[in-house]
Amino acid sequence: MAETSSTYEKALQEFRELDRKICRYNEAASLLNWDMRTGAPRKGLDGRSEVIGMLASEAFLLATSPRTGELLEQLEEPGTEGRLSEIDRKLVSETRKTYDRSVKIPPKLYEEYVVLASQSESAWEEARANNDYAAFQGYLDRIIGYTNQFIDLWGPKETRYDTLLDDYEPGMTVAELDGIFNSLRGELVPLASAIAESSNKPDRDFLQGHFDKEKQKEFSRYMLEQLGFDFEAGRIDESMHPFQTTINLQDVRITTRYLPEDVTSALFGTIHEAGHAMYEQNVTPELAGTSLCRGTSMGIHESQSRFWENTIGRSRPFWQRYYGDLQSRFPEQLKVSAEQFYRSQNTVQPSLIRIEADELTYNLHIIIRYEIEKMIFNGGAKAADLPAIWNEKYREYLGLTPPTDADGVLQDVHWSAGLFGYFPSYSLGNMYAAQMADTMERQLPNMWELVARGELASIREWLTQNVHRHGKLLTPKEIILGATGKPLDSSYLVKYLKDKYTDIYKL
Amino acid sequence: MAETSSTYEKALQEFRELDRKICRYNEAASLLNWDMRTGAPRKGLDGRSEVIGMLASEAFLLATSPRTGELLEQLEEPGTEGRLSEIDRKLVSETRKTYDRSVKIPPKLYEEYVVLASQSESAWEEARANNDYAAFQGYLDRIIGYTNQFIDLWGPKETRYDTLLDDYEPGMTVAELDGIFNSLRGELVPLASAIAESSNKPDRDFLQGHFDKEKQKEFSRYMLEQLGFDFEAGRIDESMHPFQTTINLQDVRITTRYLPEDVTSALFGTIHEAGHAMYEQNVTPELAGTSLCRGTSMGIHESQSRFWENTIGRSRPFWQRYYGDLQSRFPEQLKVSAEQFYRSQNTVQPSLIRIEADELTYNLHIIIRYEIEKMIFNGGAKAADLPAIWNEKYREYLGLTPPTDADGVLQDVHWSAGLFGYFPSYSLGNMYAAQMADTMERQLPNMWELVARGELASIREWLTQNVHRHGKLLTPKEIILGATGKPLDSSYLVKYLKDKYTDIYKL
Asked: How many Å apart are CA B107 and CA B61, to the nearest integer?
């Protein structure tokens, strides 16, 4: 018995070390990637991807090695559950999940796929530039083909598309999401139409001008301090495309991009990335150095960035508090009132391009992609069918028809890279955020007064308590249930959008 | 025959891949180290050393694996020399050297040593702060003991200390260095005394003042451009202790430290590090991605940094050209003439601390350390003997007696970290630089006119042609012989120093 106990303890020790080593590889790869996208000298980038690739591949080899399989079996032996702490138990089950998913794919097949995905991304880039869907179509069909092979190898869930969805939002199903998205679409399509017909449109003309970059930078830093971003555990830099990356629990970095002609682009970008970053900075230190020390899913992650960017950052009380601070830095350019500024940041306008969409119509862009992904994997739609389907759905939900495929089906990189099942996360984030805000309003009755005073600490602490600290210890479903007492429900987002835009557009 | 050929080719291919993989690990480790010392958020540094340590250890495991031993044997098989390119041949012989050196040390012994060295460095830091040599003495004896064990395992060369020397300056011997250093010391001790007695001392008082950091930064960047540092293949940042690090051939980074009260500290620091950096930036691209893509030795590396910092950067023509540029940035503080500024940057003053020493007496600091290291490894001196030996040599060569051990034998980190044989590189650098400058003056007869016009390209190109491009393909001895037609000779440095300081101090 003592012998067995010691064998078990040894296996657990080795397993934890293995997980720590994987985390160390990931820390190195993340830093190299961050450097590549921020300040690395141009000529030195040749070969940098190979270095990152090598580190990622070493981590992958560890995670999928036969030894990992043996350790998992030892630690999962029936009757041993009680010997593992909550953290170790979760670590074992998460490692098992990755292990099973990976070992089911023959290495040769996976290699072929990686090469294809890389070629396909390049082909997409060119096809979009040339507005030439035909040149990309073959790649897309092959990417879909491989993904279908993977679904077969992993084993389809309720539907084939469920298998993909679960990878980004564990526990989410087509059955659940159909209900949520159908109801959301049913509410948002008429709301967007009503807004489009309103004659009370916010003015945005005054936003034009030249905004000194150094002053923008300084305001972004000020904003981060106000939100509670910990500069001793993070930093902000510039990059072409803003992103957040986690080096480790106490080294969480964000980037932004300052446009001289647009003072709000970097500002809301910074707030968005800070939402992601504060999630990662506030995971409990107990999880430090383990692979559980991360946000639990794409959807919950987006809820944090969108909560700060939209729910708080595009609210009237927020600008009652902060407009003066912004105006004092740009007195020549910003002569309007706080209310006018607030309205200008909340215009709704159906458009063709997802990444430029407002917080309301954004969800319709996502629903279109979700419905098309289902048609591909559950309905057998081919690449050749997609442009027509795409254009028809844009006409139906947004009242617009893309003049070219470049403005339509070719606009996103995701499918070219094989990322199917990812898009729903963005709208899930909006819905989670609205549902959390609803609970928060009841638990912090003076919430909006606090915002109007710039006292954001108790809001951030609510999020840390209910979301951040858990890292990957809880599933998305456990998070939303624990935080709000209810499973995900789209009605909170609908109510939030209706209330806000009825007021702004005087519907 | 075809079979054998293909086996050989396969081994060569595998060997090159192995070397490339080692380089990739090193690239990652270097970047993590750079980040740790420049901009990483404070709280995130916990555990960063472990990540770097893991990467270094993976590289070490590869370099010393049994498979590497097998490949080396295959590639070294008698009669196969002609089948390897010059680069591959050198790669094999360098890998062999590292391999032999490493596999001779039992892993357990090496681990003990690494732990001890780390403790010893901490103990040294504390001992220096408390001026308590006795607290460090035991560590130093143990570090010396391990080093002696390593010498036995590696196999002593002509003398035991030769084994250590060769690790930093391949091919250098005690016999050669004794001759060189004895003659150098014989010339420099009286020269330093004569200078000390001169009544024509340069004025440095005018250097006091406050120098805006942003302007200093801007001037450092301007200086780097003038020298020919390639900003598309490098960058400059700030750190507590200035350093140069190579991420890869086209990503060579330097740091500096701006002191608001001293305009020359960051300036000469930047020029020094740029000398190191331009060496690494200008290795031939044929060596890119191999472990030969580095400077060939510590001594040759220091020759490049010191050539730019002292030979060029502290020359009269250089300040004839650039003083105006500096003055225009600090007109309030710098009211003296170019000549006065030039003189102020060339004061000679015997002092106790090596890192604050001028370019003349610096060599005496090094000779003292060299002589003591020989006494330890060839003469059996113990840690307990060192303070007395140290103080006696400082009195004899520099005319000074350290008031405390903190200002004496405890001042350098090197011995606490087991770096024996490293110090001579600094003076070797000075001597190589002077000897190269002598050849350069004859091959570029208008060299100093070019400097006075700020046309530094042909000087840099001379260095690239004769030094930089070869990377580790040539040994230090081959470099100095190839560049100057003669083996290393201290008389060039003596002549340079005599000429320069006879003029400045009117001796």
From this structure: 11
SS3 A157: coil
Q: Is A214 an 8 Å CB contact of chain B?
A: no
A200 occurs within a structural domain: no
**Do A319 and A462 have their domain in common?**
yes
Task: Give the nearest chain B residue to A49 (CA atoms).
Answer: B24
The pLDDT tens digits for A454-486 are 999 999 999 999 999 999 999 999 999 999 999
Co-location of A83 and A231 in the same domain: no
Q: How big is the A-B interface in CB pairs under 8 Å?
A: 90
Q: Cβ contacts (< 8 Å) between A231 and chain B: which residues?
A: 41
Three-state secondary structure call for residue B11: helix
Q: Is residue A147 part of a domain?
A: no
Is A403 in contact with A409 (CB distance < 8 Å)? no
Chain-chain contact of A43 with B231 (C-beta, under 8 angstroms): no
Q: Is A50 an 8 Å CB contact of chain B?
A: yes
3-state class of B58 per DSSP? helix
Tokens 């997609």 correspond to what residue?
A386
Instruction: Print the domain residue range for A90.
Output: 1-103
- Minimal C-alpha gap between B26 and chain A (Å): 10
- From B28, B46, B251, residue closest to A250, measured CB to CB: B46
Q: Has residue A374 been placed in a domain?
A: no
Residues in chain B, total: 507
| Token pair belonging to A413 | 């990189």
Tokens of B235: 């960058």
Question: Is B506's Cβ below 8 Å from some Cβ in A?
Answer: no
Residues of chain A contacting residue B35, judged by C-beta atoms under 8 Å apart = 31, 35
Quick: pLDDT tens for A265-317: 999 999 999 999 999 999 999 999 999 999 999 999 999 999 999 999 999 99
Write out chain A residues lying below 8 Å of B234, CB-based: 41, 44
Q: Single out the residue in A86, A103, A120 at which a domain terminates.
A: A103
The last residue of a domain, from among A103, A119, A148? A103
Nearest to A41 among B27, B42, B250 (CB): B250
Q: Using H for helix, E for strand and C for coil, what is the string for A196-232?
A: HHCCCCCCCHHHCCCCCHHHHHHHHHHHHHHHCCCHH
**Structural domains counted in chain A:** 2
Residue A222 and residue A73 in one domain? no
Comparing CA positions, the residue from B39, B20, B155 lying closest to residue B91 is: B20
In this prediction, residue B307 has a pLDDT band, given cuts at 50, 70 and 90, of: very high
φ/ψ region of B357 (left if φ > 0, alpha if ψ in -120 to 50, else beta) reads: beta
Identify the active-site residue in B3, B70, B76, B273.
B273
In a domain, A250, yes or no: yes
Distance from CA of B273 to the nearest CA of A (A): 17
Residue A328 is part of a domain; what is its CATH number?
1.10.1370.30
Beta-sheet pairing, B251-256 with A244-248: unpaired
The pLDDT tens digits for B88-133 are 999 999 999 999 999 999 988 988 998 899 899 999 999 999 999 9
Examine the residue annotation and report whether B371 is marked as an active-site residue of this protein.
no
Asked if residues A268 and A313 have their Cβ atoms less than 8 Å apart, the reply is: yes
pTM: 0.93
Give yes or no for B230 touching A (CB within 8 A).
yes
Q: Are residues A322 and A455 in the same domain?
A: yes
Report the candidate in A232, A377, A370 with the shortest Cα–Cα distance to residue A299.
Answer: A370
Q: In whole angstroms, how far apart are CA B346 and each of B64, B201, B500?
A: 47, 10, 9
The catalytically annotated residue of A187, A273, A302, A359 is A273
Query: Is this complex's ipTM strictly greater than 0.90?
Result: yes
How does DSSP classify residue A450?
A: H
Does residue A457 share a domain with residue A340? yes
